[in-house]
Amino acid sequence: MPAPHNPFKAALKAGDPQMGCWLGLADPYVAEISAGAGFDWLLIDAEHAPNDLRSIIAQLQVIAGFGSHAVIRPTVGETWMIKQLLDAGAQTLLVPMVESAEQARELVKAVTYPPHGIRGVGSALARASNFSAIPDYLKTAREEICLLVQVENRKGMEALDEILQIEGIDGVFIGPSDLAADMGHIGNAAAPEVEAAVLDGMRKIVAAGKAGGILTLSPKMQRECLDIGATFVATDIDVTLFASAIRDSAKAALSLLPDQSAHGTAETSNASRYLQQLCKHWSHKAAVEFDPNAGTIRFDGGNQVQMSATATQLAVTATTGPRGDLERWKGVVSRHLERFAFREEFSLVWQD
Ligand SMILES: O=C(O)C(=O)C[C@H](O)[C@@H](O)CO
Fold this sequence. Notes:
By secondary structure, the protein is an alpha/beta fold. It has helices at 7-13, 28-35, 53-63, 79-87, 101-110, 137-140, 154-158, 160-163, 176-182, 192-207, 219-228, 238-254, 271-281, 326-340; strands at residues 18-23, 41-45, 69-73, 92-95, 146-151, 171-174, 211-215, 232-237, 260-267, 287-291, 294-298, 304-309, 313-320, 349-350. It has an 8-stranded parallel sheet with strand order 3-2-1-8-7-6-5-4. Residues 18-244 form the HpcH/HpaI aldolase/citrate lyase domain.
């Protein structure tokens, strides 16, 4: 009985595009929900997410019951880490920060048993061999291990041609975020120079007969990479999906509650001047509408000011969202108006 078949590796070999999702919530409950969503593969991230061997094993166990394939990204491509992940039952690894053919060569040895590699023999204890229930695991494991490497800086891109020559590397993933940073465009993987480098690298990978992969939230880049022939493309991240959805949900819930408002007046013959000064002062960072007699200032976070001016009085309404700090906001508005009215005895008296 051989090592379990790796359908993901077979699909990449057949050039059959596999669509994936990043898992960074580091929780088997979330992995189980994600595994039932329909993605072809799920990346369990131990580089940028709080995963450890135990959390990875728990996620491998729940994903095993679904059609999605688990791809594990170790923190670094260390032999000891790879040994533990393979014994834990990972069959596909995505190793970050590969910068040279020599590094790629060492990774191939780390996933290969002796005499051709250096993977330690411990299958008797390993989940990978179903705890020795697979008698010829040692002889058949390598064929079902899919080794993917990440090229994600200028050094790695310069070595890409040599990396692509290394036998035993099944695919190369280009990391746009890290590549952007190394190219001087940190936080901007959409920079034209970065996108061009990513697409050029992807063409080289596909032309070399290796599987090309990427994680990009850009529909344009997803399409372009697939059109080039990339075969493992991740299009979303569980962390950002959840964070965005729950923030929107909280905003919608709070929008059902009433805003908080306070009303104040100041006796002054310069009401229109101060109204217009405050509107102009905040016009660069808020939505402002005003004329000499009335003005409205709306900030994105929910803080607002409405003002009206007569020949003798300035009327002000300060508003915050249902959970805003109204007292603080009243103080901010008062201090700004008092600063504009420094030439006179000015007092904004709040009625509530
Ligand atoms: O450089 C990249 O892009 C990647 O390797 C993916 C990131 O590590 C992932 O955390 C999304 O930013």
